[in-house]
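Our consortium's second objective concerns turning raw sequence data into structural hypotheses that experimental partners can test. To show how far this objective has progressed, the report includes one record in full. It was chosen at random from the queue rather than selected for favorable results. The single chain below, 215 residues long, was entered without modification.
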Amino acid sequence: MTEQNLVTLYEKTLSEQEHLTELQKSVLKAALKLFSSQGFEATSTSQIAREAGVASGSVYKQFKNKKELLRAVLAPLFQGTLQTVVNELADETLNKKYPSLDEFVQAVVRDRFYFIQDNFPAIQLLLSQILTNEDFRGEVQAFFAQQFEHLLSPVLSQYQTNQEMNKISYDNVVQLVFGTLISYFGKLLFGFAGDVEKEIEESSQLLLLAFRPQK
């Protein structure tokens, strides 16, 4: 399988940012790690400096305050990191051929549940910003709307043409799938999640109840 660790992908994106100094890259890596593990509010600039191995004054020279640092941390997500995540999802799962709608749905749910499980701290940071940062929320919505429509629409149309799937709108499919992913994230957050394979099976069956034609 290809790399689906958000932190590793983020660091790769940073390494390609020629306009950033090595000090800035070190600070951004440290900030992402601490914001993800501790939360934005609970993380101090001095902690970030210590994690990055630089003086606190060096952080302030590069970034005026913690909010500006957070904006800088989030920027690389739209400069390669999220695009790589989507490309790998397409290559590993969405663009493959499946014998049935059931197997397609289960493959997508399995892929994303393990992704959420493996990247929980970073996803928690992203979701917190989606909920509280209107500009960031708009960027994320625009990015995923553009990416997923051209990836998913042809697949859904094929299953609908084959009468394996209801004539449900693309928007409603996305709403149901994202709702399922957010629900699983919430279970992990509050410690309610059971065995991941059982969660995958049950969530896939719930989605299929909505997607399958009614007999």
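The partners drew two points from this record. Residues 6-73 form a domain with the Arc Repressor Mutant, subunit A fold (CATH 1.10.10.60). The chain has a mean pLDDT of 91. Both points have been shared with the crystallography group to help prioritize constructs.
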